[in-house]
Amino acid sequence: MDNLRKYGDSPFKIAVLHGGPGISGEMSPVAEELCSLHGVLEPLQKAVSLQGQVQELYDILEENSSRPITIIGWSWGAILGFIYTAKYSAAVKKLILVSSGVFQKKYASKIEKTRMKRLDPEERVKLKKTMKALYDPSFGNKDMIMLQLEKLLYKTDFYNPTPFKSDVVEYRYDVFRSVWKDMEKFRASGRLLKMGRNISCPVVAIHGDYDPHPYQGIKEPLRKVVSDFKFILLDNCGHKPWIEKDITGSFYSVVREELQDI
């Protein structure tokens, strides 16, 4: 399948979900680290709607995984994993949310403010121009702009990261624009959070205290709707724990501990 990578041997008990949407491949280091424990699936999702992404994930996991599966979702992938688990609760053994996006609109405005505070004036101008170009229809090659944005956010989103190295195999602006638009409407309506009441498996959220996505936007909403919920805060850790020089080992120790019962 051109939208799936496999690590280790069958049975595949773990699926890692990438961020974005439309930015596939970033979970490969996590998959490579964990495949010595169990076989790992890394879907590279291409569907251009929120409903399409959920269906695409269902089709991949139904054909390739051992049910029930444990899902590890990062950033956007954490939200996708949350929606998938709420819809197919019996198919998921455990849901691990890593550096999730926020679950209520009121927390979202804090993300940009935090990022801007971490930049000097010249960098702020550059970030604003790049964001404008991303959403301006007159600018071409949006996929390249997404790469430029990834490089800019390296300073704002991480505490003490390893040197920049992109694991992305494909940037898809069309996927990002369409799916994120669907997600924002879904979140603003309150339906995203309400879905948590349908989740019966354990949910573990792992988040860095330096992540510009405020951890309160995950911890506070989910503890009210998910019956079996645990939150783990990592100190001096940004949006991608496995590239933080001082946190990588602690992060993988936490994840391995959570995988002992699968």
Task: Explain what this protein looks like in three dimensions.
It contains ten helices and nine strands. Helix content is 45%, strand content 17%. Helix 3 links the parallel strand 5 and strand 6. By secondary structure, the chain is of the alpha/beta class. It has helices at residues 28-34, 50-64, 76-87, 105-117, 121-135, 142-157, 173-188, 191-194, 216-225, 248-258, and strands spanning 4-7, 12-17, 23-24, 39-43, 69-74, 92-98, 170-171, 203-208, 229-234. Helix 5 (121-135) packs antiparallel against helix 6. It has a seven-stranded mixed beta sheet, with helices on both faces. The longest helix has 16 residues, at 142-157.
| Overall spatial form | globular
Category by helix and strand content: alpha/beta
Distance between the termini: 26 Å
Task: Report on the biggest sheet.
Answer: 7 strands, mixed
State the assembly state of the protein chains: single chain
Q: Give the strand order of the largest sheet, numbering strands 1, 2, ... along the chain.
A: 1-4-2-5-6-8-9
CA radius of gyration is: 17 Å
Chart the SSEs and their pairings.
Blueprint: E1 4-7, E2 12-17, E3 23-24, H1 28-34, E4 39-43, H2 50-64, E5 69-74, H3 76-87, E6 92-98, H4 105-117, H5 121-135, H6 142-157, E7 170-171, H7 173-188, H8 191-194, E8 203-208, H9 216-225, E9 229-234, H10 248-258
Parallel strand pairs: 2-4, 2-5, 5-6, 6-8, 8-9
Antiparallel strand pairs: 1-4, 3-7
